[in-house]
Each structure stands twice: as C-alpha cells, then as structure tokens.
TrEMBL record:
Its membrane topology: Peripheral membrane protein
GO cellular component, one term: cell outer membrane
Protein name: Transglycosylase SLT domain-containing protein
Keyword terms of this UniProt record: Cell outer membrane, Membrane, Signal
Subcellular localization(s) per the UniProt record: Cell outer membrane
Protein's organism: Caecibacteroides pullorum
C-alpha cells in the first residue's frame, strides 16, 4: 500500500515537472514567434514603414508617392532586397502606438529623441538636428533680423502649438515686447503663413528649419537664418526587440549619405527651385503663341479643347521648354511624370519629344475628363486642369470635403477650390472623407486660375 502511494506521488511529481517543462517550452516557442527582427522581415519580403503626411516626409503628387523620408526609406528597403509598404499614422503618438502594436517595422519620420520614449524605442538611422527659425524676407529695404533680441517690438504670426509656445517662452526670456499674433481657425496652415511672409502680407512667422528649407525652394526671397530654439535631435526608430533592423538602418545611413540617390533626394526637396520662369507670347503680331502651336491645334481637337487652352497649359507647365525637368521628375513640354507618359504610350527615352508629349497629355486629359463627364463642359475643364496638376485623388478629396461642409462639389470656383487649399491643413487632410492625405493645395488653386485667365487673354489676342 505504501509503495502504491509512493508510486502515485512520484507519478504526480513527474507529471507536474513535464507540465512545467512543457509550459516553458511553449513560452520559449511563443517568444520566438513574436520576434520580428531583420531576418523575419527579409523572410516576409516586405519592409513596412510608418510615417506621417507632411511636405517633408510623405505625400502623393500626381499619383506618385513622394517625400524626403519616403524616398530614403525606399532606398533603404531596396538595399535589403525588400518591397516597401507605407502606413500613415495620425500623429506622433499614433506612430509609436502602431509600431509597438506590430503594425509596422520602422518609423520613417524625424521622431524627436526624448527620455519619454528611449525605454521603449531604439533610435536609428541618421540623427537629424532640428530647431525653430524665424521666417522673414531677405534683402529689400529692411535688413533681416540677426539676433532674437531684435524681435522685441516686432509682429510675429503663428498657429497654436509648439511654435506659439516657443515664442511665448522666448518673450518671457526677453522680458516681453514681442507682439505675438495667434492665428486661430483652420483656414490657414503654418506653410500658408510662410507664403504670406514671402508675399509681404505679414512680416514674420516661425517654423522648423527643415520645413523652412523646403519652402525656400518655392520662395527664394525668404531668410531662414535666425534660430530661436535649442537644437532637437531626431531620427528613425524601431521597437527595442529589433536591434538588427536598427543596426542595418544606421549602417545604411552612414554608408549612403554621400550616394547619388541620397544626394538627389536631398536636392529634390531642399535645393531645387519649384518655380518655372516664364516668357511672353512668341509673336503677337504673327498670331503665334509658341513654336508648338501646330501640335496644339492638331491634338486639341481630339478632346474638343480650344488649342489656345492647351497652349496655356503647356506654358504654365514648361514655358514651352521640351528639355524641362521638374523637381518631382515630370518631363518635357507637357510635364508628364515618366510613369504617366509611358502609360499613355510614350516610348521610353522619348519623354521630351514635343509631339509625343502633347499626344500623351491629350490622351491623359481625355481619360481624366471621363471622371467628370457629368459636369458642364466649362466646369469639367477646371476639374481636369486641377487633376492634371495634383492628381485626381486630391481633387476627389476636395470634392468630398466641399460636399461635407455644404459647398457644391460640382463647382470649382469658390467651392471645391477652397477645399483643395485646405488639404494642406491637418484638420482637413486627416478628415475621414479624405483618402489621399496631405497636399500643398495652393499650387493647384493658382494653377487652374492662371491657366484659365491666360486662356482668356489668348482668346483676345490670338485668332482661333
């Protein structure tokens, strides 16, 4: 009897030990399954990056994914032999939440390096130094400010948030005297304020130095040399359990900061001018707009356009320069993106051939017009021109916003054009009705107005 009890006890102990061992084995297995570092990413064939919509990180332009951080992450993924997949978060905290939840592998955004996040993240890649600067006009009669003490007695316009907070603190440090104007409401973005400085409508505003550098490519008269904050270190980030991925990103940045692709991306966003110089009509007396008038006349008939409207579009796009290449990579007389040109039948290598460019542009315009076929002809032209400049997705977003806020989604002027402008504002491009995110809408707003107004001038001066 005693032996039987002893055997039973030993059996129970053995079962417990096996159970414990099994539990440990399962726990180890589950931990291995949870690991998703570089090797597992390579096995999947895809690098999933998390980012935010902005003019310096990621946006969609003419149907193409663009943005400085996007291009760097694309180059990094290519170096690993991986496809890139982009997921956009709502804000910085949402970026970190998505990363920790395993919804992405890497934050491809200049994430501030803070004590708050150091325990949960591994910072990696290039360490970028950012700071806030005063945006002011350069040259002219009034000399640019060179010291923060000169802000006393000056009017500075800012949106609520970190720029306003920094100005308030700076004002306290200086003993007061800065006239701070808080611009409330959602009709103006921080970049709209930069444009107003460039146009002389307001004297000063504040932004981060990388945003200031990008905007100076649109407005070369800006001075952005006066820093008003301490330097803030920023970089990419991964989860703490991804040291291999962090190491690979840092090594890639060190090795590629002087590469042709890296330099080209830097130039595209922070150095190349975004404006196109323009010249007047070729010969008013002879009734000629350009050297390509016969091409415009030949192909405009295919879309039932006045050839002078097509000429006005070409003038705005390239200044009739067949060799023109935009900052975004659009080429030729009609400035089509290479992928669009090829989809419209332009042979590779002939993107800057005048006739091929006009023929492809007309085909693209005809296809785009189908999306607005229910609109009156005059309205359809506005929507097609806007889509030509921005890509149809942003126009559809603006139409959805217009409808949501009680405007006529089928009328461009003073209706949909208002909401293409507002797509530069976070309050609007994060609206659930928007599918294509951030967009610098002022360009499209002006594009449509300039082309249609010039077309009216052409009609008065140049015979049909």
């Amino acid at each position: 009897m005693r032996n039987r009890k002893l055997t039973s006890i030993i059996g129970t102990v053995l079962l417990c030990l096996l159970a414990i061992g099994g539990c440990r084995g399962n726990r180890a297995g589950s931990e291995e399954e949870r690991v998703h570092d570089l090797q597992q990413i390579k096995d999947s064939g895809e690098l999933v990056v998390l980012t935010l919509y902005s003019s310096t990180s990621y946006f969609i332009y003419r149907g193409q994914d663009m943005g400085f951080q996007y291009e760097l992450s694309e180059q990094f993924a290519k170096s690993l032999g991986l496809k890139l997949k982009v997921k956009v978060a709502r804000n910085v905290r949402d970026l970190i939440r998505k990363l920790q939840a395993g919804e992405g592998d890497l934050i491809a955004y200049t994430l501030p390096i803070t004590k708050e996040w150091k325990d949960s993240l591994l910072y990696c890649g290039e360490e970028v130094i950012t700071h806030q600067v005063i945006v002011q006009r350069g040259g002219g009669r009034e000399k640019p400010l060179k010291d923060v003490t000169e802000l006393v007695g000056k009017d500075v316009y800012v949106k609520p948030g970190k720029y306003h907070e920094r100005l308030v603190n700076l004002n306290k440090e200086l003993g007061g005297g800065i006239r701070i104007h808080l611009v409330r409401g959602d009709s103006l973005s921080a970049e709209d304020l930069i444009a107003q400085v460039a146009q002389g409508k307001i004297p000063y505003t504040v932004t981060d130095n990388d945003i200031a550098r990008l905007n100076r490519t649109y407005y070369p008269n800006l001075n952005i040399n006066l820093a008003i904050s301490f330097d803030q270190r920023s970089s990419w980030a991964v989860r703490r359990d991804c040291p291999q991925l962090a190491r690979a990103a840092s090594e890639w940045h060190r090795a590629n900061m002087t590469s042709p692709d890296y330099k080209a991306s830097t130039k595209r966003y922070f150095e190349i001018s975004k404006s196109t110089p323009h010249t007047p009509i070729l010969s008013l007396r002879e009734g000629r707009i350009s050297h390509y008038d016969e091409l415009f006349k030949k192909y405009a008939k295919e879309i039932d356009w006045d050839w002078r409207l097509l000429a006005s579009l070409a003038y705005t796009e390239s200044n009739f320069d067949t060799a023109a290449v935009s900052w975004a990579g659009a080429r030729g007389l009609m400035q089509l993106m290479p992928s669009t040109a090829h989809a419209m039948g332009v042979p590779i290598g002939k993107e800057q051939n005048a006739e091929e460019s006009v023929k492809a542009a007309v085909k693209y315009i005809g296809l785009t017009a189908q999306s607005f076929k229910d609109l009156p002809a005059e309205e359809r032209v506005n929507f097609v021109l806007a889509s030509y400049n921005s890509g149809i997705g942003h126009v559809q977003d603006a139409m959805a916003l217009a409808e949501k806020y009680g405007k006529d989604k089928n009328v461009w002027r003073d209706n949909v054009e208002k909401y293409i402008l507002l797509k530069a504002n976070e309050e609007y491009f994060t609206d659930p009705v928007c599918k294509f995110g951030y967009f610098r809408g002022a360009e499209t707003y002006n594009f449509v107005r300039e082309i249609t107004e010039r077309f009216e001038q052409y009609k008065k001066k140049i015979r049909q």
